[in-house]
Structures are given as C-alpha cells and as structure tokens.
Amino acid sequence: MKQKVLYLTMISLFLCISKAEAYLDPGTGSMIIQALIASFAAVAVFWRSIISSFKRFFKKEISEPEQ
User: Fold this and answer.
1) Looking at the domain assignment, is residue 19 inside a domain?
2) Exposed e or buried b for every residue in 23-56, given b needs 16+ CB within 10 A?
3) Quick check: is 63 in a domain?
4) Does 39 map to a domain?
5) Which of 18, 22, 29, 57 lies at 20 to 30 Å from 2 by C-alpha?
6) Which pLDDT score is estimated for 45?
7) Full domain range(s) for residue 43
8) Considering the entire predicted model, what is its pTM?
9) Looking at the 3D structure of the chain, how many domains does it have?
10) How far apart are the first and last CA of the chain?
11) Angle at the Cα of 62 from the Cα atoms of 60 and 64, rounded to 5 degrees
C-alpha cells in the first residue's frame, strides 16, 4: 500500500513540472569545459599507465652473452 502511494506521489510530481527559467553564465560554462578537459586528461594518463604496466610485465628480458 505504501509503495502505491509513493508511486502515485512520484507520478503526480513529474506531471506537475513547471518551466524553469534558468541560464548558464560564462563562468559556469567555462567550469564545465574545464571539468571535461580535466576528465579526458585524467583518463589519458590512467590509460597510459595501464598500457605501460602491461608492456613492462610482458617485456622479454634480453640476456647478455656469457664470457
């Protein structure tokens, strides 16, 4: 019974959504762009470290000839 009331309440709230009068100022836009660039850079650095660790793990060791 409580779930039905909860579902009906949620549905009624979504049906009664009003128009939002909002805008993004230039500072907010630059923060979003900066966060996107930083996340791409972090993923690139992380991926490079994963690749280099795999290369080190599977790298064949070259033995020097014995004298």
Assistant:
1) no
2) eeeeeeeeeeeeeeeeeeeeeeeeeeeeeeeeee
3) no
4) yes
5) 18
6) 94
7) 30-55
8) 0.48
9) 1
10) 86
11) 165
